[in-house]
Protein 1
Amino acid sequence: APEIVASRTFVPIRFIAETFGSTVAWLPATRSITITLGSTIIGLQIGNATAVVKGKIIALDAAPYIKNSRSMVPLRVITESFGGDVAWDAINHIITITYLLP
């Protein structure tokens, strides 16, 4: 299940990545995650508040972490890196993701 930590929504990486049709690779030696969708490659590391998206380093609002053997990642960075949009309805606590298939 998604969870909110420090006002940021985190989701299990495989849930969000596979929803977009991407592949996920776990590199245990560095505790890193590589997500690939077409020509878009996202690199994340557990505990590191930066990501590499399409070869550019970007700052994250919060670092990925592990909970119950699942890598939890910020929803927004993954969605927006794949060209999607995230809308938060604060009144009803609903997240809407808009994504057009390529």
Note: The two ends are 27 Å apart (CA to CA).
Protein 2
Amino acid sequence: MVADRGLSGAAAAAYIHPGAEGAAGGVILPLTVSASLMVGTLTAADFAPSGSITTFAQAVAAIKAGSTYFNIHTAANGGGEIRGQIVAKGNAHFASLAGFQEVPSVATAATGHGWVLVSTDGSTLTSLFAHSALSGPPAPH
């Protein structure tokens, strides 16, 4: 695997947060940090309430409504280094991540793309996340 370059340091964490474009929110779902391609399945057991989102079902509804975002955090940018709003693309929900979308904006060459697939019954989320231009391999949180 080619080493990723571009973030200010190794990815320390990756999450799904609630929040409209330009607004920051708390963590509602953790993503498994690994080298790009990060893949995982999330259930109600992974959910953490934040603000008005107090249940996994509300988190799923927020993802479907476009009011959540992916975020990769680094040690230098603890609030997030690259971010992308999750929007619907057919039955999947997609985000493109970049540093300028962070609140406040972060200068970085790193980018990413993420998808969330919601199961028909809304009981599981499968995430697929790719990033590039990291300065080193992601670090577990």
Note: The first strand starts at residue 11 and ends at 18.
Protein 3
Amino acid sequence: MRNANNMQIYVVREGDSLDRIAAAFGASAEEIAYDNQISAPYPLAVGQALLIRSGGNAKQKRRVHVNGYAYPYIQESVLSETLPYLTNISVFSYGFTTSGSLVPPQTDDNWLIDAAWKQGTPPVLVLTPFDQTGMFNNYLISEITHNMAAQQNLIDQMFLTMEEKGFVGIDLDFEYILPQDRVAYADFVANVREQAAPKGYFVSVALAPKTSAEQRGLLYEGKDYRLLGAAADSVLLMTYEWGYTYGPPMAVAPINKVREVVEYAVTEIPREKIDLGIPNYGYDWTLPFVQGTSRARSIGNAQAVRIAIENDARIEFDQIAMSPFFHYERDGVQHEVWFEDVRSMREKFSLVTEYDLRGMGYWQIMKLFRANWLLLDDTFEISKM
């Protein structure tokens, strides 16, 4: 990791140039461009947030756990640059059959696991109940949580794979759990942990972003925060996807909504077990939005800024959601974009500190957002196992 102490955030104004900003901060224009992924000839968007190194002495930083999810087809350069900022990397994902047979990822993950270990970032096996279409299947969940023979078969196969490949933990990412399977799922998590602990493996579980125990909806009712917090070694609050592919334009992770989830979570789960979910992506919607027809395009955060620059769009910042957004027109079609920048990331990091959480988990690290990692390193000491 590069020395990133005492970073500042500057928001581009009308008439600014990178050279002028660099001179004002006594910084290198080339370094600012590199840190913020700006290509020559260094165009800027009004409203763009830049992370700038301001020097100074090292400061006392709180130690946090940082996890990132990655598919095995991640670009090698992105993986290599990101690994130093992670405690663990979660390999997405392994599946299973109703009989408990473990199904490996479609893309071979051995190279990713080897690369992670070479940089001192132990890999985690992610288990998901995907069907053949790649969708979450609650029938699979019901089968594996109630059929103890199949459950034991799955656990045995996971441990065998973990030993062979070098995984250090298991992340259970089960979604759309039926309400009647709520307790059985928590028991399953507890069973996995009970058998994993003697082998030195840890167990984490992903939680839908609930704000109360009574919250209705298939995404929430099968996830019992209190039971799962007790059953697992740690939990990830999936505090993103308010703005999502099929929904109306809005922030992916509005800080006011994220805060509501955290405030509820700490009443049910020990703070030292909680990781805050952080999105490393944004969405580009076409307008007008039509429910059931519109489909937003997922984009990277650095990519979002490039889109704004290419279309001469002014980036705004919503003071309630604490998230950046902008509008542009292309080929006669109106677009609305919401994404993350260093300002919105700083707000999320502040929640980790304010609520004394264990750390954070990124969904996902497939697209490089260099300024985020530099800000993270400037804010926290990243735990290494």
Note: The two ends are 16 Å apart (CA to CA).
